[in-house]
């Protein structure tokens, strides 16, 4: 058992300590891979942000990741661009001149436009998030944020509603997860998972090929929006990894240093 | 504003003046009615007397003709308290009576009239007013019978004069009394205003005087004082937070700046640059977390979250957080034993309790994990119900906190000597304490021989049980 081996490693799991025991991908490698991926299907993004520097930084970073970015400097401009449509994800700052971010999203939703929208805001308390999501936002990220976190969330949003969501069986290489029967097999061998481990794997596999951050896991698998301080998620992931990757080849669940986790077919 | 102007502007005075005006109008109406009624009564008496006399005189005339009437009139007219009498021929020549200077053609018409007159027997007297009745007698004679109504005028003067003066006195005294009462009220209001001006100027220790009579001003003063207590406590908390922020955020900020500067000066290779940048990002992430934690504590302490309080089952939250931390505890050599007697309905903010429980378990794992590999220790998490209270206990088997240090452990940014070298921001327990206070509970640190027991006592939300009962 992997966790018995790591028992001697007394300190609470950190990125580097965790990296040694599982397959590990450097963020730069991941970005390159993501870029290659994006070359095939780049995302079209609209960023509505009044801070010129922040907007330029985001445009540069998303372009490096291979995506196409339009910028709008205020709410009205953002709304005009968004109404024309054609975007995969909208990234909307909450406090904007001329028209605030929440009303931009509410206006689009009122017209039946369901383009996924992520709200960026300096207001990070629980009720601010609830207000944001109630206005029609699909995700909420408080400032300041790590770009990897934003990228991971935007990519998760862009693929939302894809064919995978409706599938009852998720597949990555020889790993299969039957959501209806609550069964998991690898190479035909049954793997017994705890309910929480099942949900963790389900979330990772729904976003197969995408980086999933620890905060995303905490929010979507555990439904917590607080900061757990130590990387409790790492231990859960490492236990899951011991069950699905130990004794199989190739490893599927990878740690992306400085970002989170990704489940993917390494052979591809 | 003059002192009088200020008095007149008060609500009390305006109310009083309005009341006074209404009262005066009522009193005036009553007096007017009384006057009118008395006058009517007096007039009717005169009318009856005149009618009696008229009938009597007519009867005498019928019996004895004009001579008998003239004799009778002459006899009566001389009496000192006689009414007015006059008998004339058809062309107006007086035959008998005690009146003179009648207007020309006055006797050409029958009926009731009021006139001013002069008596023949007392021509020096000033003209007086009278009610008179003129009747025609057979043979073109005219008979005038009247009564002086000066009495009526006098009666009117007797009633109206004092009434008007009384009313004037009432208004003047009322206004004076009103000013007096208003001044007393205004004095207390002025006191309150003066104290609140002092408080607004920054002296938060000022309190309104309470006279002890339990009147509405006392009640107002008491509730304002309670509000001031709360504001003072909040301001003190805010000041403490800002002092702490200034002190404790500047330290890591300085470190961050030094590192960046150092890298700029000495970094030679790309790897060194990368390392310096990564450490800068790590340091700023730490700062962000500290800042978030501080904001959360400040919000919880300010009671801001209370608007968003909902009913939830704390047992579920405890179980969820325990499940989240169990693997970490396990890997750190701790057996997390969870005992939950649920359901535990609470009225509060679920996320805050999640964070508080995470902080408690995080601390317990950080400080009580065994040093030697292979050694196992217990970590107890218990959530039980005692009557209508909820008891939450996190008990570890670590080194614990010496009794003398326990009160300090709940303060912000305090990390006790033994733990200086471990990671953490020293905000964990103070956030827990703030969350517990926000929900009306208490937190205490006890010894666990060895180890630390954090005991939290909270009120349950038993509204549905109360309904069922």
UniProtKB/TrEMBL annotation, chain B:
<dbReference type="Pfam" id="PF00672">
    <property type="entry name" value="HAMP"/>
</dbReference>
<dbReference type="InterPro" id="IPR036097">
    <property type="entry name" value="HisK_dim/P_sf"/>
</dbReference>
<keyword id="KW-0812">Transmembrane</keyword>
<feature type="transmembrane region" description="Helical">
    <location>
        <begin position="12"/>
        <end position="36"/>
    </location>
</feature>
<keyword id="KW-1133">Transmembrane helix</keyword>
<feature type="transmembrane region" description="Helical">
    <location>
        <begin position="163"/>
        <end position="182"/>
    </location>
</feature>
<dbReference type="InterPro" id="IPR005467">
    <property type="entry name" value="His_kinase_dom"/>
</dbReference>
<feature type="domain" description="HAMP">
    <location>
        <begin position="183"/>
        <end position="236"/>
    </location>
</feature>
<dbReference type="InterPro" id="IPR003660">
    <property type="entry name" value="HAMP_dom"/>
</dbReference>
<protein>
    <recommendedName>
        <fullName>histidine kinase</fullName>
        <ecNumber>2.7.13.3</ecNumber>
    </recommendedName>
</protein>
<dbReference type="InterPro" id="IPR050428">
    <property type="entry name" value="TCS_sensor_his_kinase"/>
</dbReference>
<keyword id="KW-0808">Transferase</keyword>
<keyword id="KW-0472">Membrane</keyword>
<keyword id="KW-0902">Two-component regulatory system</keyword>
<keyword id="KW-0597">Phosphoprotein</keyword>
<dbReference type="Pfam" id="PF02518">
    <property type="entry name" value="HATPase_c"/>
</dbReference>
<dbReference type="InterPro" id="IPR004358">
    <property type="entry name" value="Sig_transdc_His_kin-like_C"/>
</dbReference>
<dbReference type="InterPro" id="IPR003594">
    <property type="entry name" value="HATPase_dom"/>
</dbReference>
<dbReference type="InterPro" id="IPR003661">
    <property type="entry name" value="HisK_dim/P_dom"/>
</dbReference>
<dbReference type="GO" id="GO:0016301">
    <property type="term" value="F:kinase activity"/>
</dbReference>
<keyword id="KW-0418">Kinase</keyword>
<feature type="domain" description="Histidine kinase">
    <location>
        <begin position="244"/>
        <end position="462"/>
    </location>
</feature>
<dbReference type="InterPro" id="IPR036890">
    <property type="entry name" value="HATPase_C_sf"/>
</dbReference>
<dbReference type="Pfam" id="PF00512">
    <property type="entry name" value="HisKA"/>
</dbReference>
């Amino acid at each position: 058992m992997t966790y018995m081996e790591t028992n001697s490693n007394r300190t609470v799991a950190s990125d580097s300590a965790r990296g040694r025991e599982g397959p590990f991908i450097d963020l730069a490698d991941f970005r390159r891979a993501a870029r290659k991926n994006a070359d095939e299907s780049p995302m079209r993004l609209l960023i509505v942000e009044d801070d010129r520097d922040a907007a330029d930084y985001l445009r540069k970073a998303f372009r490096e990741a291979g995506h196409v970015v339009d910028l709008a400097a205020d709410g009205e401009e953002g709304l005009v661009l968004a109404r024309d449509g054609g975007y995969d994800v909208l990234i909307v700052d909450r406090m904007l001149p001329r028209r605030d971010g929440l009303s931009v999203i509410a206006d689009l939703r009122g017209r039946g436009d369901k383009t996924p929208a992520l709200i960026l805001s300096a207001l990070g308390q629980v009720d601010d998030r609830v207000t944001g999501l109630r206005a029609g936002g699909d995700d909420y990220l408080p400032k300041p944020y790590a770009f990897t976190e934003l990228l991971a969330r935007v990519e998760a949003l862009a693929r939302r509603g894809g064919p995978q969501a409706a599938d009852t069986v998720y597949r990555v290489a020889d790993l299969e997860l039957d959501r209806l029967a609550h069964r998991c097999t690898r190479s035909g061998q049954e793997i017994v998972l705890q309910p929480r481990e099942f949900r963790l794997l389900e979330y990772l596999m729904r976003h197969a090929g995408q980086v999933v951050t620890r905060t995303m896991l905490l929010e979507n698998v555990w439904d917590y929006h607080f900061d757990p301080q130590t990387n409790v998620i790492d231990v859960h992931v490492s236990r899951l990894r011991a069950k699905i990757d130990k004794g199989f080849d190739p490893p599927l669940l990878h740690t992306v240093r400085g970002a989170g986790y990704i489940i993917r077919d390494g052979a591809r | 504003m003059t002192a009088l102007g200020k008095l007149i502007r008060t609500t009390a005075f305006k109310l009083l003046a309005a009341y006074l005006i209404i009262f005066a109008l009522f009193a005036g109406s009553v007096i007017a009615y009384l006057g009118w009624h008395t006058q009517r009564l007096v007039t009717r008496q005169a009318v009856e007397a005149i009618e009696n006399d008229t009938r009597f005189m007519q009867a005498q005339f019928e019996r004895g003709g004009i001579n008998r009437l003239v004799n009778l009139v002459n006899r009566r007219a001389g009496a000192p308290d006689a009414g007015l009498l006059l008998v004339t021929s058809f062309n107006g020549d007086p035959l008998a009576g005690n009146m003179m200077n009648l207007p020309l053609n006055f006797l050409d018409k029958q009926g009731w009239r009021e006139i001013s007159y002069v008596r023949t027997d007392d021509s020096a007297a000033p003209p007086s007013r009278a009610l008179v009745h003129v009747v025609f007698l057979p043979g073109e004679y005219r008979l005038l019978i009247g009564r002086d109504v000066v009495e009526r005028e006098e009666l009117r003067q007797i009633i109206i004069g004092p009434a008007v003066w009384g009313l004037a006195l009432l208004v003047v005294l009322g206004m004076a009394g009103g000013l007096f009462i208003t001044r007393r009220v205004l004095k207390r209001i002025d006191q309150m205003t003066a104290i609140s001006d002092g408080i607004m100027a920054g002296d938060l220790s000022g309190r309104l005087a309470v006279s002890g009579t339990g009147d509405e001003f006392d009640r107002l003063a008491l509730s304002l004082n309670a509000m001031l207590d709360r504001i003072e406590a909040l301001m003190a908390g805010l000041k403490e937070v800002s002092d702490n922020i200034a002190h404790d955020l500047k330290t890591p900020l300085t470190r961050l700046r030094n590192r960046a500067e150092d890298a700029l000066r000495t970094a030679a290779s790309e790897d060194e640059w990368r390392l310096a940048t990564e450490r800068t990002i790590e340091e700023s992430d730490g700062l962000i977390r500290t800042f978030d934690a501080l904001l959360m504590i400040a919000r919880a302490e300010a009671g801001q979250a209370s608007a968003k309080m909902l009913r939830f089952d704390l047992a579920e939250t405890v179980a969820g957080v325990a499940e989240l931390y169990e693997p970490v505890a396990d890997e750190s050599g701790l057996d997390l034993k969870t005992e939950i007697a649920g359901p535990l309905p609470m009225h509060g903010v679920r996320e805050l309790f999640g964070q508080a429980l995470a902080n408690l378990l995080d601390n317990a794992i950080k400080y009580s994990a065994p040093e030697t590999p292979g050694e196992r220790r217990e970590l107890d998490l218990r959530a039980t119900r005692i009557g209508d209270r909820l008891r939450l206990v996190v008990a570890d088997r670590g080194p614990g906190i010496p009794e003398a240090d326990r009160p300090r452990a709940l303060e912000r940014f305090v990390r006790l000597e033994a733990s200086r070298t471990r990671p953490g921001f020293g905000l964990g327990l103070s956030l827990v304490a703030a969350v517990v206070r926000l929900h009306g509970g208490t937190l205490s640190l006890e010894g666990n021989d060895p180890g630390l027991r954090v005991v939290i006592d909270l009120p349950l939300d038993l509204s549905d049980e109360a309904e069922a009962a």
